[in-house]
Specification:
- The protein is about 30% helix and about 20% strand.
- Strands 4-3-2-1-10-11 form a six-stranded mixed sheet, covered by helices on one side. It has a five-stranded mixed sheet with strand order 5-6-7-9-8, with helices on one face.
- The chain has about 260 residues and is of the alpha/beta class.
- Strand 3, helix 3 and strand 4 form a beta-alpha-beta unit.
- It is built from five helices and eleven strands.
Length: about 260
C-alpha cells in the first residue's frame, strides 16, 4: 500500500495567517496525489494551529469566544476533503497551549464531533509506521519560542528530537516551530510557517512524503506562490476570518443603524 503524508505547520490562525499560501500548498499536495496515486493519505498539522489571545500586537484576538478554533477546524476539514485524508493528526504547539487554553485539543474535538473526521491529538509527539518506515511528528518538544525565526534548529532542540527518535526507533522526524523550512541529513525535516510577521516571506516550505510499498521514501517540497504583503492583505485576512465565522453562524453580521 502506497502512503502519502502531508505535513503543515504553524498556521497561527487568529493572527496574520497567510491563507492564500495555505491554499497554494494544498493545491500542490493535490497535484502530487494525482501524480503518485497513493492508497491512503495522512494529513499532519505540527502545532501552533491557533494563536491564543494577546501574544502578538498584530493578533486580531478573536479572544472572547476563542473563535479561531472554529476557523482552524473549518480549513482543516477543507484540506481533509480535498485530499481525501484517512487520518488527520494535530500536535500541540507552544501557542496552542498558552494560558492553558489547549486550542489544538478543541480543534480536534470540533473535527471529530462536527465534521466526523478521524482526527488524533497529541500534546507532545506521535509516531506512525508506513511500510516499515517510522515517522515521528512533533512541534519541537518545546513549550517556548526557543529557536524560532532566526536560530532554526538549535542544539537543544536537535538533541531533544534525536533522543526521542532513538527512543521510539523512528526513521524520520517532521517538526515545525522554527518557521524555517529545510531538511537535516534527510532524517529531520522542518516545516516553516503561514504566519507573515517577522519572518522571511519567501520561506513557505512544507513537506509531503510518499512511502512506496517497499519502504522507499520520496520527500516532496510543497510551495506557495510569492506575493507582496501589505496592510491591504491584512484586511483580506480579517475578511477571510469574518466570512468563515458568518458561514458557520458563529458571529452576527454587523449592522450600522442610520443616525
Amino acid at each position: 500500500m502506497k502512503h502519502a503524508i502531508i505535513c503543515l505547520s504553524d498556521l497561527h490562525v487568529g493572527n496574520l495567517f497567510d491563507f492564500k499560501a495555505y491554499y497554494d500548498v494544498l493545491s500542490d499536495a493535490e497535484r502530487y496525489c494525482r501524480i503518485h496515486q497513493p492508497d491512503s493519505v495522512t494529513l499532519v498539522y505540527l502545532g501552533d494551529v491557533c494563536d491564543s489571545a494577546e501574544i502578538y500586537r498584530t493578533q486580531v484576538t478573536l479572544a472572547e469566544k476563542r473563535e479561531q478554533r472554529y476557523i482552524a477546524a473549518y480549513i482543516i476539514n477543507e484540506a481533509s476533503v480535498l485530499l481525501d485524508a484517512r487520518e488527520v493528526i494535530v500536535t500541540a504547539g507552544n501557542h496552542d497551549l498558552r494560558k492553558h487554553l489547549e486550542l489544538s485539543r478543541d480543534v480536534v474535538d470540533i473535527l471529530r464531533n462536527e465534521y466526523k473526521i478521524n482526527a488524533v491529538y497529541t500534546e507532545n509527539f506521535i509516531t506512525r509506521d508506513y511500510n516499515g518506515r517510522r515517522f515521528l511528528f512533533t512541534h519541537t518538544l518545546s513549550r517556548r519560542s526557543r529557536g524560532s525565526y532566526y536560530g532554526g534548529l538549535t542544539g537543544l532542540i536537535l538533541t531533544s528530537i534525536m533522543y526521542v527518535m532513538v527512543k521510539t526507533k523512528s526513521d524520520i522526524a517532521v517538526v515545525g516551530h522554527t518557521h524555517r523550512g529545510g531538511a537535516w541529513q534527510d532524517i529531520i525535516y522542518q516545516c516553516s510557517s503561514f504566519h507573515i510577521e517577522s519572518m522571511n516571506i519567501m520561506d513557505r516550505t512544507m513537506w509531503m512524503f510518499i512511502v512506496e510499498d517497499n519502504g522507499a521514501v520520496i520527500p516532496l517540497r510543497l510551495y506557495a506562490k510569492m506575493r507582496p504583503y501589505s496592510t491591504y492583505y491584512q484586511r483580506e485576512i480579517l475578511q477571510f476570518y469574518v466570512d468563515i465565522l458568518l458561514k458557520l453562524d458563529k458571529v452576527d453580521e454587523t449592522r450600522v443603524e442610520p443616525l
